[in-house]
Amino acid sequence: MASRSDPLTLEVVELIGTVVARYYEEYEDVAAKHSLTGAQARVLGLLSHEPMPMRRIAHRLKCEPSNITGIVDRLEARGLVERRPDPADRRVKLAAPTDDGRATAARLRDSLGFAREPLAELTTVERTLLRDLLRRMLGEEE
Fold first, then answer.
1. Residues 72, 43: one domain?
2. Nearest-angstrom CA–CA distance, 129 and 131
3. pTM
4. Which of 1, 41, 59, 104 could form a disulfide linkage to 31, CB 3.0–4.6 angstroms apart?
Protein backbone atom coordinates (compact mmCIF):
# COMPACT_ATOMS: atom_id res chain seq x y z
CA MET A 1 0.00 0.00 0.00
CA ALA A 2 1.28 3.47 -0.89
CA SER A 3 2.31 5.95 1.75
CA ARG A 4 0.46 9.25 1.97
CA SER A 5 3.69 11.08 1.32
CA ASP A 6 5.38 9.02 -1.38
CA PRO A 7 6.18 11.11 -4.47
CA LEU A 8 3.67 9.34 -6.74
CA THR A 9 0.81 9.80 -4.26
CA LEU A 10 1.70 13.47 -3.80
CA GLU A 11 1.78 13.97 -7.58
CA VAL A 12 -1.60 12.25 -8.04
CA VAL A 13 -3.13 14.38 -5.27
CA GLU A 14 -1.73 17.53 -6.90
CA LEU A 15 -3.09 16.49 -10.31
CA ILE A 16 -6.53 15.77 -8.86
CA GLY A 17 -6.51 19.20 -7.23
CA THR A 18 -5.60 20.83 -10.54
CA VAL A 19 -8.37 18.96 -12.37
CA VAL A 20 -10.93 19.98 -9.73
CA ALA A 21 -9.82 23.63 -9.79
CA ARG A 22 -9.98 23.80 -13.59
CA TYR A 23 -13.38 22.09 -13.62
CA TYR A 24 -14.84 24.56 -11.10
CA GLU A 25 -13.29 27.52 -12.90
CA GLU A 26 -14.88 26.46 -16.19
CA TYR A 27 -18.18 25.66 -14.45
CA GLU A 28 -18.27 29.16 -12.95
CA ASP A 29 -17.51 30.77 -16.33
CA VAL A 30 -20.14 28.72 -18.18
CA ALA A 31 -22.73 29.35 -15.44
CA ALA A 32 -22.09 33.11 -15.62
CA LYS A 33 -22.79 33.04 -19.36
CA HIS A 34 -26.25 31.71 -18.45
CA SER A 35 -26.65 34.33 -15.67
CA LEU A 36 -26.30 31.67 -12.99
CA THR A 37 -23.88 31.16 -10.14
CA GLY A 38 -21.79 28.00 -10.14
CA ALA A 39 -23.87 26.66 -7.24
CA GLN A 40 -27.12 27.30 -9.12
CA ALA A 41 -25.73 25.56 -12.20
CA ARG A 42 -24.62 22.54 -10.13
CA VAL A 43 -28.06 22.23 -8.50
CA LEU A 44 -29.79 22.56 -11.86
CA GLY A 45 -27.47 19.95 -13.36
CA LEU A 46 -28.14 17.56 -10.51
CA LEU A 47 -31.91 18.03 -10.77
CA SER A 48 -31.81 17.43 -14.52
CA HIS A 49 -31.08 13.77 -13.72
CA GLU A 50 -33.96 13.40 -11.27
CA PRO A 51 -36.13 15.53 -8.96
CA MET A 52 -35.02 15.33 -5.35
CA PRO A 53 -35.67 16.76 -1.89
CA MET A 54 -33.51 19.61 -0.59
CA ARG A 55 -31.77 17.40 1.95
CA ARG A 56 -30.59 14.96 -0.72
CA ILE A 57 -29.37 17.84 -2.90
CA ALA A 58 -27.44 19.21 0.09
CA HIS A 59 -26.00 15.78 0.86
CA ARG A 60 -24.90 15.25 -2.76
CA LEU A 61 -23.30 18.72 -2.97
CA LYS A 62 -21.84 18.55 0.56
CA CYS A 63 -23.51 21.71 1.88
CA GLU A 64 -26.21 22.84 4.30
CA PRO A 65 -29.88 22.31 3.36
CA SER A 66 -30.58 25.99 4.14
CA ASN A 67 -28.13 26.96 1.38
CA ILE A 68 -29.96 24.71 -1.08
CA THR A 69 -33.30 26.27 -0.15
CA GLY A 70 -32.00 29.71 -1.16
CA ILE A 71 -30.51 28.39 -4.40
CA VAL A 72 -33.74 26.59 -5.31
CA ASP A 73 -35.73 29.74 -4.44
CA ARG A 74 -33.66 31.74 -6.95
CA LEU A 75 -33.90 29.02 -9.63
CA GLU A 76 -37.65 28.83 -9.05
CA ALA A 77 -37.98 32.62 -9.41
CA ARG A 78 -36.29 32.31 -12.82
CA GLY A 79 -38.68 29.56 -13.89
CA LEU A 80 -35.95 26.92 -14.06
CA VAL A 81 -37.09 24.80 -11.10
CA GLU A 82 -40.40 24.04 -9.43
CA ARG A 83 -41.32 22.44 -6.13
CA ARG A 84 -43.77 19.56 -6.17
CA PRO A 85 -44.98 17.00 -3.63
CA ASP A 86 -43.09 13.72 -3.48
CA PRO A 87 -45.49 11.00 -4.69
CA ALA A 88 -43.95 8.59 -2.15
CA ASP A 89 -44.41 11.00 0.80
CA ARG A 90 -46.64 14.02 0.25
CA ARG A 91 -45.10 15.77 3.28
CA VAL A 92 -41.82 16.05 1.34
CA LYS A 93 -41.30 18.59 -1.44
CA LEU A 94 -39.15 17.71 -4.42
CA ALA A 95 -37.23 20.26 -6.44
CA ALA A 96 -37.66 19.45 -10.12
CA PRO A 97 -36.47 21.19 -13.27
CA THR A 98 -39.02 22.82 -15.54
CA ASP A 99 -38.75 22.31 -19.29
CA ASP A 100 -36.73 25.53 -19.45
CA GLY A 101 -34.56 24.27 -16.58
CA ARG A 102 -33.83 20.99 -18.36
CA ALA A 103 -32.95 22.87 -21.56
CA THR A 104 -30.67 25.23 -19.63
CA ALA A 105 -28.97 22.30 -17.87
CA ALA A 106 -28.38 20.63 -21.26
CA ARG A 107 -26.87 23.85 -22.66
CA LEU A 108 -24.63 24.11 -19.58
CA ARG A 109 -23.44 20.52 -20.02
CA ASP A 110 -22.80 21.07 -23.73
CA SER A 111 -20.72 24.17 -22.93
CA LEU A 112 -18.35 22.33 -20.59
CA GLY A 113 -15.43 21.23 -22.72
CA PHE A 114 -12.64 20.97 -20.14
CA ALA A 115 -13.21 17.37 -19.10
CA ARG A 116 -14.97 16.13 -22.21
CA GLU A 117 -12.29 17.13 -24.72
CA PRO A 118 -9.31 15.43 -23.01
CA LEU A 119 -11.47 12.40 -22.17
CA ALA A 120 -12.36 12.02 -25.84
CA GLU A 121 -8.69 11.37 -26.53
CA LEU A 122 -8.70 8.36 -24.20
CA THR A 123 -9.78 4.96 -25.43
CA THR A 124 -12.96 3.37 -24.11
CA VAL A 125 -10.80 1.01 -22.03
CA GLU A 126 -8.89 3.97 -20.53
CA ARG A 127 -12.09 5.91 -19.75
CA THR A 128 -13.62 2.81 -18.18
CA LEU A 129 -10.52 2.26 -16.05
CA LEU A 130 -10.48 5.93 -15.00
CA ARG A 131 -14.20 5.78 -14.09
CA ASP A 132 -13.71 2.60 -12.09
CA LEU A 133 -10.70 3.99 -10.24
CA LEU A 134 -12.56 7.21 -9.38
CA ARG A 135 -15.55 5.20 -8.14
CA ARG A 136 -13.21 3.09 -6.05
CA MET A 137 -11.57 6.20 -4.56
CA LEU A 138 -15.05 7.50 -3.68
CA GLY A 139 -16.11 4.18 -2.16
CA GLU A 140 -18.71 3.61 -4.87
CA GLU A 141 -17.42 0.29 -6.16
CA GLU A 142 -20.01 -1.93 -7.72
1. yes
2. 5
3. 0.77
4. 41
